[in-house]
């Protein structure tokens, strides 16, 4: 019932695109209402309620115009879903015009805004148009987008465009993409929408290569409508087209001009960073110690990223659920970070470079790939090692800024934990535990729990029995409580299963994670073989899946496809399984690389050649100055184990110990893969045996106890190893 006791009026379908305009004190400002109506009618999807349509239209145009519930009643009677009150107020020598847009169905205010105009309304059209836009699109486009004109007369196109920019502000690129597609659907001539669709897709293309085609098409659409774009927008369109043409030399300076004209536009800084960091072209330079240099400055790209991050800390988000891992890679925080490069076509030369420090900057000195491991190539200097610590400190500052900007974000706290961990700071675990308590998303909970497992293992190995026990219990709980929702989760769980000595579970999870990367006929055997090889057995499973792979390759693949699969999957598994297990046939394509030559010699039983191959690997590593924590376990174990089999326990221990002793500095992402996790556990067993044979009783007990703790409930075939470890730990 209504307030007067009568029955409520029948429901009327109101058109929210129809607007009733009411002007307060119209007599003092004649023509104001009509000017406001004309401003609204600029949008082709907005209809104005004409006075002749109103039963009491004379009141709507007069100084005693209806307001509140009366205005809503009048609007509803005309089928209008909105009404707009325009109130003029004299302010000195100008007139303040305030607009209030109201939902006629609920009497609720949707938006308010005000502008200043001349008392005579002379030249007021532009200001009133801006007032209309502010009311129709209250959550408009950020000022930093530098629009001179809306670019469309379609209201739904403009609404979708504004929603896209709100998504960009939140750094939700997937949502921005969909809204921009919607905007261009409503108005196929909307140049600004195509421009920002190109920009968003250029960022998405880093992790979704399929976005590249849509990026070029959108950039071309925007560029063709250049006369409808502001100068700053034309600059961005030209830069995006150049980038789509792989012409970073032209694109990056254009993005830099955008940053120079607006130092606070984070999208311009991120676009510049993206351009500089993607540019991998190497050019000849007589002034360089190697005779070559990268065309673009990586340091400048990092500084542009830092500026974008300072303005909007969520700029790391386009890179997926493990987005902060991408930031780690960009900042070269791994002990084995290398930058690759290429010559300009038609030259096909490729290059590699270690990061190094030059003053307070990061630099790279490219060397042709063929000479990278050559003994005549200059050794990796201390400047390279110094850069690693500097970059990790830099990452920590970035993470701390993110945490300060988003104190209630578990993701930000996770970033701090990762950065502290890379610096070997035990406080990382405290930060991570707080982040786990804050997490509400199941995906976040799994990732953070897994990360805590690896942090505990890194910090507690070998002597922290209590923390290793907590790591095992947490890993076991995660494995029992999670069904993988996607490949990434399966990969995370497979690594935990390998750490706990559960090869069968690791194989099943690796199949989920990796099956789509191989031909369908190999979707079961290839991933399973990789997981079993990582743990070195059981032997019957290795033989079965090797034979199954071989049959599938011979019967379903072409010769070229077969060679690729054998090199990428079979040779990899064969090396992981060594030295305990020798495959029946090793792909010849594995030869030529240092580890390929070692595997070939070992599989052939050519022990003198295997010794020489091991010496070559060691020499290359020493020349490169690779830090111990930069050596990954999926090779380190196999190399050390071969030395032990060859009777060189002392060298095997010296080979293995530095990396295991510096686990706390290893990036957790380097361990959280099934190949690394399985090899780490085997390396710990080997370390315990080597320490015992060397007469180092205390160390032997510590490493044996660590293995016994992590492998408390392994697959049955590992039980004899566990019993031996338990006995040695007493």
The major beta sheet can be summarized as: 5 strands, mixed
Strand order of the largest sheet: 2-1-3-4-5
Rg over CA atoms? 33 Å
Terminal residue distance: 84 Å
Give the % helix. Answer: 55-70%
Topology, number of strands: 12
Describe the oligomeric state of these chains in a short phrase: single chain
Net shape: elongated
Mean pLDDT: 86
Strand content: 5-15%
Structural class: alpha+beta
Poorly predicted spans: 1-10, 57-64
How many helices? The count is: 31
Question: Would you kindly provide a written description of the structure presented here, covering whatever features stand out?
Answer:
With 730 residues, the protein is an alpha+beta fold. Helix content is 57%, strand content 9%. It has a five-stranded mixed beta sheet with strand order 2-1-3-4-5, with helices on both faces. A three-stranded antiparallel beta sheet has the order 8-9-12, with no helix packed on it. The chain has a two-stranded antiparallel sheet with strand order 6-7. Strand 8 and strand 9 form a beta hairpin. Helix 20 packs across helix 21 (525-534) and helix 21 runs parallel beside helix 23 (559-577). The longest helix is centred in the middle third of the chain and has 24 residues, at 382-405. It is elongated. Mean pLDDT is 86; it is low at 1-10 and 57-64.
